[in-house]
Amino acid sequence: MLNIAFISHDRKKDEMVNFVIAYEYVFQGHTLYSTGTTGSRIMAATSLDIHRFQSGPLGGDQQIGALVAENEMDLIIFLRDPLMAQPHEPDIIALLRLCDVQGIPVATNIATAELLVRALERGDFAWRELTDKYKPGVDEA
Ligand SMILES: O=C(CO)COP(=O)(O)O
Description:
InterPro entries: Methylgl_synth, Methylglyoxal_synth_AS, MGS-like_dom, MGS-like_dom_sf. This protein is an alpha/beta fold.
């Protein structure tokens, strides 16, 4: 069972909901997290149970980032809006930076999300379920 987070900006929420509906059978059985509104939208459209953090502008990206910092998050689907400025841009950058620090797979557009969910379905993420000492991290820091 992996820890997976869903995050989407407003103009990407329909895309996110349709994506999760299509792959609900893959996501069920994992532990799911989201920012506030994204999670509400997904739960209204699926039977998935999702732990919702704050809405992004209120700190949700940072709450998910805290789990990433602990290397507790295994996969993030973050459908960003590349054409609209966000008031919490620093939080978004910080979350993506932490994903790079820890080596966490993160999809920021639907094409990458499709590839990662198919990899998840195929079992390619099994390495994330191994003990901490096999996870890439910041041990050299
Ligand atoms: O703003 C977000 C991510 O940066 C998403 O927050 P919501 O899911 O609450 O809309």
